[in-house]
């Protein structure tokens, strides 16, 4: 419990609260002037008395003027009474009030109350006192000190809907003025005579601490008195004297307090303060603020009591506060209830709805009384200072740019750049002198961010406080969001509509009353509207003045009657009633608009933002309270196969669509349109949190409208070849993608791919397999035994890999155990960026806001006061084939295959003047191979096939630089990859080419793949037993680079690229960085440079067998549909030179023992399981994998 709540609760526990004001006989009281804006004032000013008489059936007699006037007056009073006392609207609105009480001292009024109403407590206090003096005063002093008797003065209620203000004709402005007047008094009186005397009273016993927090044992008390310490008895006597002195006061300040707080109340707590003494109110903590009506019971009196009492409501009280804290709370309450927050609109609706429900309930249970109105307790908000929140909202991005006149390179605000040389740069500026105060050496390779100021290119370097003007030739543009090292601000986090971290904020300011969902209530309320014709309007009435004093037709109430419980009335829940869009929303064919709610401007009334300028706040509030964010998202999530249009945090920032749900005292809804835009993306809801607006809900990201219209190729998952035939096969690939990615230095696991997405993938695949199985089953002959299909089964271990902690714990240990090659540099970053591209999460409140749009419906009709209407809606679009978990798994796997193949080819040919990246298009082939041996022993025959993978670059024959020149340098044969020591090395330090097959590269032939992880794409991992040759596969990868817009619906870009791949990659990094810096809120860029890797199957398997191979091995190695190859004189063909030594005609590796006899080689073909036919990479992915660009240290 919060400290303030605990303090007031401790004081009120087991306490009786009474109001001792004298009852006034109202029967003879004269009616005072009617408050402006009230129904009575409207009736008196604008109703036609004569017409009203005719409505009531009274005859109009011109000769009986006095009698006629009396009748008219009586009729107007009757109408006024009916409007004010028999009014559901007024009844609901009257709940919005509060009062303030001040902890007082026992003056003479309270003496009498204590003597007559608290006789038993007084007797106990007197018995406990041994001091001389008036026993009554001594007892009252003791009860005051121990909080057995707490006198209070209370104010009248501050009512929101009491009367309207002449300033702008609104209730709220008058309410605000009255509260501010009270705040002024509280502030000014805090240094006045009464406040000082009250503080002195409380300080007599314990100084600044609570009055009963320094009580001492009698022995200690006696001991301390020997040393001159003032005893408790003396302090008690002093307190009694001060109380008596205070009671005799009659100063102007004293009277002012009585005028501001006219009602005498008290807290009677028989046992006094029982909680921790240090938590009791201190001397200056004298105020409590209480929501709702003050009177909480019928009138009553004590036995033999001389005062009429009534219980005082304390349910909605919070305190105790000093003067400053009291004013802070009052100010916050006013801020909380101002119309733009929609709190009044929401609570008024809920209150009306509940009242109507109770009326219907009374119709069934006549003997039950209307239940008491429930007050909501506003919890303390910990905000500091005064500010206009709009000044703190993130502003739209307007990046500046600088174009290098020489190279035409474009630098944009926010771009990441690297220093190309060491430079002296300013670290700290002298603002007064406008010159550099301190310089520092900036090392080559330092990172910074571009700041274009006054058309000058400047860079804010990491570690330097000042920006420095730079020359373009000294800067290298890095990929968008690139990070130099841990801690450097790389990616700029999405700013979500002004939301920041707030601690101890009130999260639920009002407790909603549970709405009884009863069918008979829906039947009673649905499609019925009733009107009461109050009176005819005077013929000479000022209609403009009339409109200013009245409201509009109660659309809220009518909506309640229409909607009342859609479960029975047939109206669909918000978000389910979807129709094709009307008008020019620019949505793709198939999209639908789903209505959420109707919003009205100035609902429930207008609000003056600034009194000085009479500027009105531009806000709207929902006509009916919307579903909670998690409930609404759950309704949307249940609509299977649909995606919803979504704004990213950047886009919310750019277009001013700010979510203020975490700030309930701010304007909640802007009076503006928020139309769908083609740059927004479609997302599918994955998992909706059930813990309010702060819960983290997840979603999957599909495609923007713009890209869907222009290039759907990049929205949908490319064709998958050689699909899985069992659930286990699919689950294995899915589980591998969820494991930690390891690049030799760190291991990172995907975090946003939830179980929901995984299960959807598996369920979809299982559905396809069931359809295939059904087709097979129909072909089974009658009488065949059905045993089920294992293809639909999924093993427990596989489930654990997908769902369990296994996915997060696979690390470098596994890679070492399996002897797998770590991924290229950038492996983790690529996986993380892919994850961020496909998956997202947000607080439930902001997620719903980012899925919502708003359009104008024009003005309301039917009343003289019209209000602008807006529709809040969502946009749905069918996306039944979107499978984010499968897409992540395949794209992650095959993008890694692509960069590993590029790295393998580049490393093999990087000695050449022009390697694999120096052609416009690169084509690399890879296939799995198996070398077979037979070992015949005395009793057994062992046949083993050893797998490996090989690659080939078609263009190699044109680029081979000739034989390798091997040299002995630093005690090694260099280059080590190509060279080895000769047989007589000890004598001659001689070196030779490691193996002769390297020379076959000159003819564009194959080489053995060094990357073991890459090799296992086309070869299985065999732990025991012989290899299944059918599992060997082979494919070709073709690499294209170009602007995204140059790629059509399929195939390569058009026209085909002409510049070398490497040039395209380097330019692409700069182009993409510029595009994303200029418009960081956009997701699709037609001019973005991409790298497309296209995969095609090698169509035919091949084999070569030794001349002495066993017939059974020949049959298996060269089965049907396998092309048999042979070289000259029994030697292997040139395409096998990387496997078989042409001199010995034996394989280079794999032989286990001298008894192993080589049988032959089998080469695989066809797609591996689940091959993605194409994958898109970024230029930085290739360059980082080849160490041609600095590593990014961010995920």
Give a quick precis of the structure.
The chain is of the alpha+beta class.
Describe this structure in words.
- By secondary structure, the protein is α+β, with helices and mostly antiparallel strands.
- Helix content is 32%, strand content 19%.
- Strands 17, 18, 21, 22, 23, 24, 28, 29 and 30 form a nine-stranded antiparallel sheet that branches. Strands 31, 32, 37, 38, 39, 40, 41, 42 and 44 form a nine-stranded mixed sheet that branches.
- Strand 11 and strand 12 (435-442) form a beta hairpin.
- Helix 23 (727-738) runs antiparallel to helix 24, helix 23 crosses helix 30 and helix 28 packs antiparallel against helix 30.
- The protein is elongated, with a radius of gyration of 42 Å.
- The two termini are 41 Å apart.
- 38% of the residues are buried.
Number of strands: 44
Number of helices: 36
Question: What class do helices, strands and sheet pairing give?
Answer: alpha+beta
Beta-strand share of residues: 15-25%
Global outline: elongated
Largest sheet: 9 strands, antiparallel
**Oligomeric assembly:** single chain
Mean pLDDT: 75
Distance between the termini: 41 Å
